[in-house]
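Now for our specimen.

. . .
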Amino acid sequence: MKPTTMRFESLDMLRGVALMFIILFHSSIYNYANIDKIDFDNPPIVVVLMSFMALWGGIFIIYSTVVMTHMFLKRMPTFSQKMLIKYSLIAGAIYLFFHYILNILLGRWNTDFVNNQPDMTAIASTLRNMHLTFPHITKYFEGSSLSTIALNLILLSFVLYFLLKNNGIQKTKRNYTILTLSGIIIMLLSFVRVLLYPFFTQAMETNNYVLATFYSFTIANPYPLLPYFAYGIFGVLIGMMLVNNHTNLLKKFILPLGILFIAYGIGGMMQFDKTISTPDYFWYFKTNFELGVFILLLISSVLILEPRKKFMKSMSVITWFSRISLTIYMLETATSELMRIALLGIYPNWNQTINGCLLFGALNIILWIVILSVWKRNSFKYSLEYFWVKFFNRVGKQSTKMDLIL
């Protein structure tokens, strides 16, 4: 199933939905005033489910490598492979830069759930304290979905280069086999992250910041390369099959594989106490489960939505979120904190219940719908995506990132 444009619009739709969930659950979870009263040794299932829904970064990691693979294969007749690697390296470097801006200045909160102590970035803590406040040094050594996207783009661009060189694009069976086995093996063996995590803790305790930086990308919370490099590999595999129009393989092989990951994850999670964002075996099985869910969502979106262009055009609000997703992701904490201040002035107890916090999250989505409905009239000018397109046009790569479906 080949898209009529240079983009899979169905995946853009899925990205928009995912971002709306991120806004909802980030705003809800990190504003719950009584979160310290939850038994985190055995949290309620609703809290565990909310933590799952807040960690949608995995689907963006897969999406980014699907798009990168699509770019590689579609542009190979026009650009050399080395030039395509150059574009991926530049994109990876930009994402890495935004990772630090997000973690230190603009990004989401973290919370010491047991002591109910928020660990906030500069913008959040400044708005709450009403004076300039910078975060604790640990914020410099947290991973993020942006850092993992960056590293996946960089590392997997070289994987693509070696798979596709010497007319390797024709060796689809070999390519699919290598990618499938690599993804499965890395995913299944990613439990070693649980064993390696004390090295990150030790590096932080001894102020070994070089090692701490390395570990922050590879084994630290919340999106370490183990296992999220496997997510990227499956994104490359799905991207190849989509470009090669091998939807039969997506249906007969990748979908069942996703179901197996779900079953493996559920079976494993049932053997351990429920935890949230802890480097343990529950987390290991949870990431297997989430990978399966994301694979099913990606493939189902393409198979079901891609032929239904009229339906997708009718869902233009979701498309707005997708088109400037990076901008929204960078600014969602600031808008949430400003709305928090306003709402506390009107109704001081709104954050005492989970339902009140979920309503607050929904209000954040509505706020962004209003912002985007106004901004789209100017084609989202001056968004990060606007400057992204301008920049890559200057270095010779025509981007479709801002092609709007209105």
The chain has 17 helices and two strands.
